[in-house]
Amino acid sequence: MDGDIVFYIHGDAIEYGGELFSTGELTADILNLSLKDYQRIQKNVQCMKNLAEQYERTQDREFWWKLNHQFVALRKQMMEFRVFQILLRDDSKFLDETQQYTEFRSLLPEEDLDYEDFSIEQWGDMAEQAETTGQIPVPLLIFPGGQKTKWSYYRKQMKRYERYLGDVACFNPTIHNFIHFLPDFFFFPENVIRYPYDQFIQVCI
């Protein structure tokens, strides 16, 4: 959930998210994210930033509710690509819980959603209640705590998505330029002698 990526190398395969992928498979997948796709996604991200700023300025939960709908749409867009299907697969939980939480905006006043001062015993009782009934109490939705704590956690997840997209924005043009450079590189015989083509391609992927 914090955005750490752990993978293992098994010969010519990569284990990532509990699944095995052939060398270059995930690279090829993310390279299919076109400039048009990226611009469409970034438009959604900018809309989310605007709504987040409006919420922080006004503390009107309706802006958070609208923001969450945009966040769900962003995740859906990113999940079209295999690497994000793994990175984001557990995120439906906090997004669904955010929808539940923000929908209380018309039922409960702000002060009734502030649970920062609960004792350890009270948190434990609520966790037990959730396990017994299968229903998550409001204080445990999104992240245990009051509204400020939940919002801080939510913003952290937004930053995580932005970081992923920033990495793609740096990676894709670099690799595309590298691939376009290959024909020029191998046009000269001395380069072929110095670095066999098939070996060079393996490095690229």
List the helices and strands and how they pair.
Elements: E1 7-10, E2 13-16, E3 19-22, H1 25-31, H2 35-58, H3 61-78, H4 82-87, H5 92-103, H6 120-133, H7 147-186, H8 189-194, H9 197-204
Antiparallel strand pairs: 1-2, 2-3
Helix pairs in contact: 2-3, 2-7, 3-5
Instruction: Kindly report the oligomeric state of this protein.
Output: single chain
Tally of alpha and pi helices: 9
In percent, how much strand structure appears in the residues?
Answer: 5-15%
* Helical/strand content category: mainly alpha
Basic shape: globular
- Segments where pLDDT lies below 50 for 5+ residues? 185-205
Order of helices and strands: EEEHHHHHHHHH
Reported for the largest beta sheet, the result is:
3 strands, antiparallel
Quote the distance from N terminus to C terminus. 27 Å
Query: Numbering strands along the chain, what is their spatial order in the largest sheet?
Result: 1-2-3
**Total number of beta strands:** 3
Radius of gyration: 22 Å
Q: What level of helicity do the residues show?
A: 55-70%
**What is the residue-mean pLDDT, rounded to a whole number?**
76
Task: Give your account of this protein's structure.
The protein has 9 helices and 3 strands. A hairpin with a 2-residue loop joins strand 1 and strand 2 (13-16). By secondary structure, it is mainly α. It has helices at 25-31, 35-58, 61-78, 82-87, 92-103, 120-133, 147-186, 189-194, 197-204; strands at 7-10, 13-16, 19-22. Helix content is 66%, strand content 6%. Helix 2 (35-58) packs antiparallel against helix 3 (61-78), helix 2 packs antiparallel against helix 7 (147-186) and helix 3 (61-78) packs antiparallel against helix 5. It has a 3-stranded antiparallel sheet with strand order 1-2-3, with no helix packed on it.
